[in-house]
Design goal:
Arc Repressor Mutant, subunit A; mainly alpha
Length: about 160
């Protein structure tokens, strides 16, 4: 079994982990695990598939471990300060959010009545275009036009706020 799939598995792992040494380690660990299963007396009908599956899972586990290590140290000053005073609780952030919300609500209020109604039913009440069309007595295409008009108005408002 070792000679039969070794090179294929090594190439598979090397393409994924981008390091021949790391790929060799993954292949060796995969073989060790599969051989342990085989020595326990459990039959392995598809050793190639089991080797590939084991190697893939080992690489995923390694990637996850590396991701955890790559995160910043929780004791860093910037991170500790951010935890102690989240941006969303800062007075200037609260003020900006309130201004933003008021501008969007004013934009929605300024829409024509039918347009505003279709938009609110869709975005805030979660109704489908078909349900809105039936409720308002208009076509689905008209509902779509109303919603598009409202979305474009809100987008224009957000663009103005960014500048």
């Amino acid at each position: 079994m070792l000679e039969r799939y070794y090179r294929e598995l090594l190439n598979f792992c090397a393409r994924t982990v981008k390091s021949r040494d790391a790929a060799t380690d993954v292949v060796q660990e995969s073989y060790a695990r599969v051989l342990a299963i085989q020595q326990s007396g459990q039959p392995i009908p598809e050793p190639r598939a089991l080797l590939h599956q084991t190697a893939r899972r080992l690489m995923i586990d390694q990637h996850r471990r590396n991701e955890v290590r790559d995160h910043d140290d929780i004791d860093s000053d910037a991170h500790t300060e951010a935890l102690a005073s989240p941006r969303h609780q800062q007075p200037d952030a609260v003020y900006e959010y309130r201004q933003h919300a008021e501008a969007i609500l004013a934009t929605i209020d300024a829409l024509p009545a039918r347009c505003r109604e279709a938009f609110v039913l869709n975005r805030f009440e979660g109704l489908s275009h078909q349900e809105i069309a039936e409720r308002m007595g208009i076509s689905k295409n008209m509902v779509a036009q109303h919603i598009i008009r409202a979305v474009l108005a809100c987008k224009a408002c957000e663009d103005r706020l960014k500048n």
